[in-house]
């Protein structure tokens, strides 16, 4: 399967196009049959849910970019469905996070043999321990006896991804909503494309993971498995093997265990945005393991994003302005970033929007995060206050907000409690740590000279 194979593009495009065509007909028929505004609203919502079912079925069956695009649409609203149908639409698309068609070992073994040094592995378990849209992971033993995780791309997935991205513009052109969203569609699609193509760059992922693993070496509650570049190749990434329980097992753990895990998630994923200007763009349960020693292991750096000093400073300044009720300063920051143009919403409206879309960071004191609160925040974040032209965040910040919402989706699954605002102040204002984990982290930094 080559990236320029016309039959590949047409075949994969037909799957997506079929779902789009059925959606267009379904929505038109539903609207035509409605006799009142209430009936039209209900009909549009049902049509959107049927469309989500079709997209989940189509995208979930396709390796490559199609599935990744579906995952992105679960949290990045491009105005594809009516606002009242958005929460249910996004909930259905989140099913793609844990869904991927694996490949037979006989398909991926030639990739491993071609990319890795001869005799590198004494044994490879033919049963994958994880499967995703671009590749799958096998457990192996190196020739010198080390346990490793072998992440290997599916044969031909490069061509499949490029075919999907060429079809994506058509998908969203035909099925484009008229509702304003908080993002620039073209910029976000460009960011999605760049991000997905970056996931094919296993050497780049290896470098990113190496840097993060080195940064967190010896950390008291965070573990990042080190990659082994000498055993890896263009389509194979070999890392240390981490033995741990799936993250979902923590949801039934005692309260103190869930609270601790929630804070660790917050410090690693969200702290990366505010503190380092770097973050993992794909927080979800499949990328986190609970180790026996109490640490959480964080896997998968294919979507590792770097904001840069100016963008990271913008994130911090917006937070400071919102916390201090400095609405005029918030307006000025958004205008300077190009997010607000023309006659936009007033300062009070923008402050309210920020408070409702990120309540955990702007609400002092301990708070328990629930799935219902996260759903409300997602609904607000993707439905900005009216403005002409619309309020639209730069693409890079759209993805940092997406990572934050995904993180709090995981925290909400734990129903974890913490003073999230107090923790965030450590990164924004340089406040001293207010929790035991914060003090452990500070002591570790002092020992490392960080």
Automatic annotation (TrEMBL):
Taxonomic superkingdom: Bacteria
SUPFAM superfamilies: Protein kinase-like (PK-like)
Pfam families: ABC1
Domain ABC1 atypical kinase-like: 96-323
Region feature (Disordered): 1-22
Alphabetical list of PANTHER family matching this protein: CHAPERONE-ACTIVITY OF BC1 COMPLEX CABC1 -RELATED, PROTEIN ACTIVITY OF BC1 COMPLEX KINASE 7, CHLOROPLASTIC
Family named by the database record: Belongs to the protein kinase superfamily. ADCK protein kinase family.
Protein name: ABC1 atypical kinase-like domain-containing protein
Annotated source species: Tsukamurella pseudospumae
């Amino acid at each position: 399967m080559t990236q320029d194979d016309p039959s590949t593009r047409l075949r994969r495009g037909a799957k997506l196009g079929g779902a789009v065509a059925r959606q267009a007909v379904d929505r038109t028929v539903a609207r035509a049959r409605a006799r009142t505004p209430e009936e039209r609203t209900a009909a549009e919502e049902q049509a959107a849910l049927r469309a989500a079912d079709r997209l989940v079925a189509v995208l979930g069956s396709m390796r490559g970019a199609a599935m990744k695009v579906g995952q992105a649409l679960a949290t990045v609203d491009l105005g594809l469905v009516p606002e009242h149908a958005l929460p249910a639409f996004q909930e259905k698309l989140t099913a793609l996070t844990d869904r991927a068609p694996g490949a037979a070992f006989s398909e991926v073994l030639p990739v491993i043999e071609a990319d890795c040094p001869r005799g590198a592995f004494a044994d490879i378990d033919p049963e994958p321990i994880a499967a995703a849209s671009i590749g799958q992971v096998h457990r192996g033993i190196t020739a010198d006896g080390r346990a490793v995780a072998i992440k290997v791309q599916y044969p031909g997935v490069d061509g499949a991804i490029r075919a999907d991205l060429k079809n994506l513009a058509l998908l969203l052109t035909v099925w484009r909503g008229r509702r304003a969203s908080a993002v620039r569609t073209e910029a976000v699609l460009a960011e999605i494309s760049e991000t997905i193509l970056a996931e094919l760059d296993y050497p780049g992922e290896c470098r990113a993971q190496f840097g993060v693993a080195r940064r967190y070496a010896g950390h008291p509650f965070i573990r990042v498995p080190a990659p082994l570049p000498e055993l890896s190749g263009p389509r194979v990434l070999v890392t240390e093997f981490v033995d741990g329980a799936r993250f979902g097992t923590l949801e039934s753990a005692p309260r103190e265990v869930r609270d601790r895990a929630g804070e660790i998630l917050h410090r690693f994923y969200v702290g990366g945005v505010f503190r380092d200007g770097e973050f993992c763009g794909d927080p979800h349960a499949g990328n986190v393991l609970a180790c026996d020693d109490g640490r959480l292991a964080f896997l998968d750096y294919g979507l590792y994003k770097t904001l840069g000093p100016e963008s990271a400073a913008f994130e911090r300044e917006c937070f400071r302005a919102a916390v201090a009720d400095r609405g005029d300063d918030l307006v000025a920051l958004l205008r300077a970033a190009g997010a607000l143009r023309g006659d936009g919403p007033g300062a009070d409206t923008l402050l309210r929007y920020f408070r409702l879309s990120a309540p955990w960071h702007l609400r002092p004191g301990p708070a328990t995060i629930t799935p219902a609160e996260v759903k409300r925040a997602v609904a607000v974040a993707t439905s900005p206050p009216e403005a002409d032209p619309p309020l639209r965040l730069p693409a890079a910040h759209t993805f940092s907000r997406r990572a934050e919402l995904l993180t709090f989706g995981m925290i909400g699954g734990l129903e974890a409690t913490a003073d999230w605002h107090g923790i965030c102040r450590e990164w924004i204002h340089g406040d001293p740590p207010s929790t035991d984990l914060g003090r452990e982290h500070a002591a570790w930094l002092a020992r490392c000279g960080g």
